[in-house]
Amino acid sequence: MQIKKGIMLYSDAIEGHGHIAINAGVVHHRQVEKHKVEYGNYSFTPCFEEDAYIPKRSWRGLNERELLVLKPTEKRTKANTVYIGKIPEDLKSAFEGLRLGDCKERAEVLEAFRSNADAVARINRELGSFLSSKSDGKAFNFHYLGSNLPNLEVVASDTTRLPADHSEEDKVYMGIHNDGTKYVPLNSLFRSGNRLTINLGKEARSFLFVNLTLPQALNMLKKKMDIRKDNIDVINISKAFFKYFPDYPVIRVEQKPYQYYIAPTDNCFHDGCTLGTKELDIILVYFGAFKF
User: Fold this and answer.
1) Does residue 286 contact residue 142 with C-beta atoms inside 8 Å?
2) What's the rounded Cα separation, in Å, for the pair 238 and 177?
3) Could you tell me if 68 and 2 are in contact, meaning their C-beta atoms sit under 8 angstroms apart?
4) What CA–CA distance (Å, rounded) separates 188 from 185?
5) pLDDT tens profile 17-50
C-alpha cells in the first residue's frame, strides 16, 4: 500500500535520507516470532497486549515519491509534522556531566540525577531555556524520565498498572498505538499539542510513526465499517485501523544521542524502537505545544 500525504517529516539535524526507512505495514504480534532480549541479567521474550500490532520487518530506504510525500510544505503544523533536531551544545554538555552512557539499569539513571546536584542544577537552567525557546507561548509539562532495554521492536508499555518494584520482564508492550484519552474526540486531537523527547542514551534509537493523522485514519475506516455502531474512539482506533489496513506502511526515523523529536503523538500511530542496540535506552519526555 502506498503512503498518502498526511503527517510530514522535517529535520535539520541530519543531511540526506539514510536515517529514514519505510516498511510494508504491521503484523499482529501473535503472527511473528519475537526477538529475545539478552541484556545483563535479563534473558526473556517480551510480552504484548492482546491487540498489539508491531512493524513488519521489511525495512528499506524510501523512493523519490515517498520522500516527496513526507516532505514538509507550508501547510505543516504542530498537529501534522514530526520534527528531528539537536539539543543546544550547552545543554548537551550539561547532560554529559551525568555520564548517563555508563548506566546499565534504570536505578543507576535515577541515582545519577539524585547524586549530582550541581550538574542537575545546570541541566535545569539549560533545559528550561531550551524548552521555553521551543514552546509556543504555552506551558509545557514534564512527562517522564524513561528507560528501555535494548533490542526491542517497540518500547511503550503502561507501567502505571505495575507495582513500583516491577522488573523489565513484567512489562506488557502496547505495539504501535496513539496517545490520548477517551474524553477527547478524534476530530479535536489537532488541539492536543505534541511531545518533545530527547535521546539521552549512548546509542541511536528510532521513532516509528504512521504518517496519517487520526482523522485521516478515521475517514479510511468509514469506508470499511460503521464507526458509530462500533463506537470507534481514541482508545480503540488503532486496533480497528490495523485490522483493516495492516499493509499501510510505517516510517522509521533514526534519533541519535542528544537529538530530540517533536511529534503529535495524540494525533498519530507511533512508538519507539531500540532494535539492534546493545545499551540502555534513556529518554526525557515533555508534553506541550512545541514549535520547530
Assistant:
1) yes
2) 6
3) no
4) 5
5) 779 999 999 999 999 999 899 999 999 999 999 9
